[in-house]
Amino acid sequence: MTGSAARLDLLVAAARPGPPDQVCRHRAILVGAEALVALGGLAGTVQLLTGTVTPPVSDLEPLGRSTWVLPGVWLFATVAVPASAAGWLAWRRAPLAPPAVLVASGTLALELVVQIPFIGTNVLQAVFGAFAGGLAGLALDARRAGWWPAGWWPASGIG
C-alpha cells in the first residue's frame, strides 16, 4: 500500500463512528456548541448573501468589493462548514471529532481576526472567540482522555 493510500485509510477509519460504549469526553457539549456555531455561521452567511442586516458596503472599499457576497462565501467556508463537520463527527463518536473541532476552532478564530480590520470589534466577536477557545480546550482534553484517531500525531498525551 502506498503512503497516500495508507493515509486515506487512516482518514476513512477515523471518520467512522465509534462504538456506542466508547468514552467520548465532552461529546454532548461539542455536538451542541458546534451546532450553535454552525447555525450562527449559516445565519450570517444568509444575511451577507441577501444584504440583510449587513455593515455598510463602504467597509468593503479596501477590498474593491461592492457587495457582501464574497465575505458571505468566506464565512460559510470558514465557519459553517467546519463547525458542521466537527459537530457531525462528534455526534457519530468518530475518532476524528477532536481534531475536527480543533480545525473548526482555528478557522472560526481566523474568520474573527480577518473581519476586525473591515468592520471593527463587536461583542459577538468576543462571544464567538470565547467559543473557539473553549471548544479547542475541550477537544484537547478529549484527546488527553483517549478520544483521538489511532496512528495520528500526536498519539500520546500532551505535556
Summarize the structure.
The protein has 159 residues and is mainly α.
Structure, described:
The chain has helices at 3-15, 27-50, 69-91, 97-119, 123-144. 66% of the residues lie in helices and 0% in strands. It has one domain (25-144). The two termini are 33 Å apart. The chain contains 5 helices and no strands. The longest helix has 24 residues, at 27-50. The protein is mainly alpha-helical and 159 residues long. It is elongated. α2 packs antiparallel against α3 (69-91) and α2 packs antiparallel against α5. Keywords: Membrane, Transmembrane, Transmembrane helix. The chain crosses the membrane at residues 28-48, 68-89, 96-116, 122-140.
Output the keywords.
elongated; mainly alpha; 5 helices; membrane; transmembrane; transmembrane helix; 159 residues; disordered C terminus
Compressed to H and E, one letter per element, the order equals: HHHHH
Low-confidence stretches: 155-159
Oligomer: single chain
- What spatial form do the alpha-carbon principal axes imply? elongated
Helix/strand/pairing category: mainly alpha
Keywords: Membrane, Transmembrane, Transmembrane helix
